[in-house]
Design brief:
Elements: H1 3-17, H2 27-42, H3 45-51, H4 54-64, H5 70-84, H6 87-102, H7 116-129, H8 133-142, H9 144-150, H10 157-178, H11 192-205, H12 210-226, H13 231-247, H14 255-266, H15 277-288, H16 291-303, H17 308-313, H18 315-327, H19 336-347, H20 368-386
Helix pairs in contact: 1-4, 2-5, 4-5, 5-6, 5-7, 6-8, 7-10, 10-12, 11-12, 12-14, 13-15, 14-16, 15-16, 15-18, 16-18, 18-19, 19-20
């Protein structure tokens, strides 16, 4: 921090700590947060606090106010999170402020919590801190992780979305930073924070509350969408059974959320094996979901060119063809096999990614000539089937 900024900072902090001087424009607070974030990335966070005691005095003053402004409280939460991203700075603040801001002693149990900006500031502050193991341990021991679970159903969509991203970040960080050996199917070998999150997901999937189930499915969709590590395969093995149970409900109340989950997983290379149980669940989904739900799933799977060869000849592709027949009410007037041949020809028009394996002949000849001969035979057969 340059000398002029260091000279002006105490006066700025004094204004922010004065409840009589309301900040009418939150834009200046956002700019200050961006400035502090840039400073902490370029310099030592702990040194900045030690050289500028007005910052910790600001936090102390705001905590002592009887009726602080929600925007200032949100600012303090986010500012503290930025500094606590450094583990040394986290330990420096832990004794004085962290429990008072992010624990049960903080705004969680006050009327300030009713303001969405305070809840958002709390979530963003925690998100900034999750960069070291000290934060993970604090979240588990202080009960903050339970607050995060509660905020999944927040009435503010902005807060709920931020919480979903936070849980994904906590789960992936916990597994990647604490794990030094391959993960076991038993949760007792997983990091404690990851165990708590996964137990919460499993409990939510088995809940009678549709909203809780949808929250869990949305979280899983985000996890599988951004994480392509092998532990996601273990995760799927744990949730496959309750997912199957959801598909067998009459009617399926979470169909659209399940479709989003399946498509997110279909794009992951972890589930590229044809024998993966995911494809069995997708096949069941096409049978159990109504047309409005199964349609996007069928089309989405067909558009996943990574699974082009897999889908063309296995039972899942056949199921998709049958689904299209039923949806278009053509099952009575068009033979299933003929329809599937035309659907296969249509799918082949999709340009596979450069370097992807061509389906080739079923017998195993993958040469270009063999592929072309197969296409010519199918085209000739389809032409004769539909000729007047």
């Amino acid at each position: 921090m340059d000398g002029e900024c260091a000279r002006l900072l105490p006066a700025v902090c004094a204004v922010l700590a004065d409840a009589r001087q309301l900040v009418s424009d939150d834009t200046c607070l956002e700019k200050m947060l961006d400035w502090f974030k840039a400073l902490t990335e370029a310099e030592s966070s702990l040194l900045l606090l030690q050289e500028n005691p007005c910052l910790t005095e600001l936090v102390t003053c705001v905590l002592k106010l009887e009726d602080p402004s929600p925007s200032i409280v949100s600012f303090i939460l986010r500012l503290t999170g930025i500094f606590a991203a450094s583990e040394s700075c986290f330990q420096h603040l832990q004794g004085e402020f962290l429990s008072s801001l992010f624990g049960e002693e903080g705004p969680i149990n006050s009327s300030l919590w009713e303001d969405a900006s305070v809840r958002s500031g709390w979530v963003e502050g925690v998100r900034s801190m999750v960069r070291h193991q000290s934060t993970i341990q604090f979240l588990c021991s202080s009960g903050a992780i339970d607050v995060i679970f509660m905020l999944q159903g927040d009435p503010s969509l902005f807060v709920a979305s931020a919480v979903n991203r936070l849980l994904v970040h906590i789960l992936t960080f916990s597994l990647q930073s604490e794990t030094t050996s391959p993960l076991s199917m038993k949760y007792c070998s997983w990091p404690m924070c990851a165990q708590m999150i996964m137990a919460h997901i499993e409990e939510s999937l088995k809940s009678s509350s549709v909203s809780r189930i949808k929250q869990a499915l949305k979280l899983l969709t985000s996890v599988f969408g951004c994480c392509h590590d092998q532990w996601t395969e273990i995760l799927w093995s744990r949730i496959a059974e309750p997912i199957e149970s959801l598909l067998k409900e009459e009617p399926v109340q979470t169909g659209h959320s399940l479709v989003d989950l399946f498509l997110s997983m279909a794009r992951s290379p972890v589930f590229g094996c044809p024998e993966c149980s995911l494809w069995t669940s997708v096949t069941h989904a096409l049978k159990f979901l109504n047309p409005a739900q199964a349609g996007p799933l069928a089309l989405g799977v067909l558009k996943c060119q990574e699974w082009y060869d897999l889908l063309l000849w296995n039972s899942l592709f056949y199921t998709i063809g049958i689904w299209f027949c039923k949806s278009l009410k053509l099952l009575c007037c068009i033979k299933k096999k003929t329809f599937l041949l035309h659907l296969a020809a249509h799918v082949r028009l999709l340009q596979p990614k450069k370097g992807s394996r061509s389906p080739g002949a079923i017998g195993g000849d993958n040469s270009d000539d063999s592929v072309q001969r197969g296409r010519n035979r199918r085209s000739k057969g389809m032409h004769s089937s539909f000729s007047p």
